[in-house]
Task: structure prediction
Amino acid sequence: MALPEWLALAPTIVLGAAAFALFAIDAADPRAENGALLAGTATLGALAALAFAGWALIAGTGTEEPITLFAGQLVVDGLSSFFTVIVASVAALVTVSSYDYLRGRGDQAEFYSLVMLATIGMSLMAAANSLVTVFLALELSSLPSYALVASLKRNRGSVEAGLKYFLIGALSSAILVYGISLVYGVAGGLRLDAVAEGVATTDLTGVLGVGVLMVLGGFAFKTASVPFHFWAPEAYEGAPAPISALLSSASKAAGFVVTFRVFTTAFGLDLAGVDWVLAFQILAVATMTLGNLAAATQETVKRMLAYSSVGQAGYVLIGLAALGGGQNAGVLGASMLHLLVYGFMNTGAFLFVALAEHWEVGRTFEDYNGLGTRAPVACVAMTVFMFSLAGIPLGGGFFSKLFLFAEAVGAGFWWLAAVGVLNSVISVYFYLRVVRAMWIEEPGENLGRIGEYPVGIYTAVIAAAVVTVALLPGMFLVDGVASDAAAHLF
Amino acid sequence: MAAFDYAPAIAVLPLASFVIALVAGRYMPKGGAFAGILATGGSLVLSAWMAFAVAGGDTYNESLYTFVDAGEELSLHLGVLIDPLSAMMLVIVSLVAFLVHVFSLGYMNDEGETGLPRYYAGLGLFSASMLGFVLADNLFMAFMFFEMVGLCSWLLIGFWFRDAAPPSAAKKAFLVTRFGDYFFLVGVVAVFATFGTAAFAGAESFPTIAEEALAGGSEGAGGAAVTTFFGLDPGAWFAVIALLILGGVIGKSAQFPLHTWLPDAMEGPTPVSALIHAATMVAAGVYLVARIYGFYALLPTVLAVVAFVGGFTALFAATMALVKNEIKQVLAYSTISQYGYMMLALGAGGYVAATFHLMTHAFFKALLFLGAGAVIIAMHHGEDMWEMGGLRKKMPVTYWTFLAGSLALAGIFPFAGFWSKDEVLYEALVHGLNDPLLLGAYAMGLAAVFVTGFYTFRMVVLTFHGKPRSDVARDPHGVGWNVKFPLVVLGALAVVAGFLNMAPVAELTGLHVDYLHQWFVGPLEATSLETYEGLIEERAGYEAAELSPLLPAAVSLALALAGAGLAVVLYRGAEPTEHTDRLGSAKRVLASNYYQDEYQVWLAEGLTARVARAADTFDQGIIDGVVNGTGSVSLLSGSRVRRIQTGVVSNYAALLTLGLVALLVVLGVTGGWF
Result:
């Protein structure tokens, strides 16, 4: 029995259904603070999306022959399913942990429905196949994000961060849409394949180049790459920690998938006169270095994680910066793998911060002193995340980073790998600072409030830790999927 | 054969006594001594049973427990090999261990020492390790127990760990023997890598494979499958392996230049010295060479090295014993010297001579150490021979047994040492007549006979004769049955053990009194004397000259008597005087042990530590400096980077736009848009 083609969008559709269900619950009983029902609905939606996307990957839906929908505006292939898996996993972890984080607050329904809407946007970014849908999906994920960052309405930091995020986001969107218009002017089409045809024969190199770079800028905002990263440290720090996790993991992954698809499909590697690979090389080096250097000097853990997530974006950018060396599918696949592991380890780390915020232990490294004596299980999980982020083989982050650097070297970009390794060395310092504080330092008096162990956040943190560790041996199960998906782009 | 089913128990019994002494020793009478006595007694009975079984023509070569089984590639297992050699050694070790346990009752318990359970636990573990080493059927197992023996010697030498000297001596013994053991370990790995097996005996054993490989090589036929390294041909590579294993042997058997630990190890309790430094641990090295003699016999170069090291050590250590004033120090250097003789015999192709001397030496040296222990008890733990004198009348049992041991050590007819040492020298001579290197080793061994006679009788005369030279010596402490019994047993053996193998008499009269030869002809072909003799002739190319044993025996006996006589002449009388000053500057060299310790300390402190410090400086300064430099640079630039994040959103917007413009300019220039 042949299923209708639109069912290939099932992950996005169930996310939408969850969002509408949340609206309906809120409309039926707006004053209710039934956190379990709301969080459960959202989590169910995210898990269903994860299941559909995972099934699509296993069953091979679109992986061999991409399924195009709505006159080619959307496409379902290995790449879109792979990133929908990442996005939906992060969303599920975030909604589960929000159950505890939001307990006792009002307006929970809108929080969850905004999370769902942002997630829909991200899953659509993975499937967008035309510059219009790219822009719409990107805005669909961004607009709820602004509101979510500011969702702690009585917290100055949260509101300020939301506003700054929105302003920079607006500027970036303007740059993006201007860039799209320039590309459209040159190519005469908006679907990515039409753009590819159009730019191949154009003489308007300068206009096209400006357009391509402005599009790149719009995407760089989403991936928080230097110099479009300025919003990130403040938004991640001011936002509720689960939202920081969502933005820094899922939203970043979505930004990358859209970049991968647009640049490889629409602009291609043979674009005469516009050496966008060079632009990514500059961005990669700048992002890695700046992110890690800044992270090394932070005093608070959450801000350190914010900069670390900038630095990690720099590693992923190697996947684009090392294109054209004959290992295209390899480097891009390695980038995808790194984003997959990163989705779990980084989300887990932010959720651990959410746990610390829940306990009100404080924000600085010193405040985490001796946490291992009070909450050993969570601290083991955090240790896994830190080691994995640093690329030490306690989690999948070791292999994904190793593949990334190895593929870059294989493609002839040894200097990119060298910069990456140097940055990894720096990063060990600040990641292990957390581990040291938790396990080696003497506990302070601020730990007195740790009395209860929130089920939701614990579940999410431990699930993330288990997957992070499991991806160490499990890397060999998924790397074929990633490189196949990447290979179809070329 | 039922007897061999109990073979593992020989090692397990003392192990059990170790556990009992450790766990329950403090609740038991005598600190757990009886458990050890019973266990080693049981081992002795079982060992004797093994020896009878072997005498009846049976052997045993079984693997018992496998650690790692990687098929053809590698198999690490524990097993038991019982043949004439190991059966003989089992009897020696368990007998000496048993007597030392008994003696300890007098030396430790009666003297009110503390920590006895620890002491007996150590003795038990040591006996178990040594017996396990003797039982081993492969090199890997031998290495394991070799190391355990080393560990136990560390525990026992450092038994009085609250004083300054014993822990230091224990550390030295451990480190110096460990230095040799590194070579041994590499050798074990090399054996596995080369032959794929480390078994001692049987068709699949590494000596057999080595022989087939060499035979195949020389006859042009396809040899057995061996893997050699560094592009060496099998002969050269096997020599490398044999020398590596020899490293462990030289360490354990205290051969030059790794002998320096043994005199220091006299800091341990005297029964321990008897057990470890006379009969067992030091014997482990020589035993190992004998155990894989089928391998060494293939390699003439290595044999020559063994012989020369042995001959040199025999003379070298004996000269150092000349000027020592402490009774145990004299015995320590004599031990080194005597093991030199065994190495000389092994290197000269005298397999029987070496094992014969190993046996007689075990008896008479254990006797001398225990006798010295009795003297030390009597002297209230004084060891200086110049404080003694005249003890002959006060402790007759000790005196007569000690004298028997000394006559054996000096090699005076008809005591045990005469027969064995004579055979060692005879083997070295008959093979050395065709080989100048061996002849040199023989000459050194022969010279050592004179020196041995001298220092032995200097010790006897100073200790027991003349007039008491101190108050303690005038009124010595009595010793009990538990001291006298082991002395008497060993004293009897020191007199008669030589009759086991009267090779010269057999030669002269045609009587079959060379029982040990017949014993080693043995039932197991791979380790039988005939095989070894064949290999020595064929592979090592040793030729025995036709020579009557009478003349060399007479020469060495004359030298021994001359040495002993000179000592008696010089030191006799009521008030003997020191004559060492006559040696002039040589005295200082000898008393300083040829500065061996000094140069080894220099090697450790002056050279190794300096190189290590230089490496450390390089690591700290250059490597860490770069890393720390990276760290501080990154923290510094990190704080600069931090300042970009002003918190003012319009700054962000401006920087973002400027960044984009900068990108546009870079790409525009490279892409030629303008």
About this structure: Chain B touches chain A at residues 627, 630-631, 634-635, 637-639, 641-642, 645, 647, 649, 652-653, 655-660, 663-664, 666-668, 670-674 (CB under 8 Å).
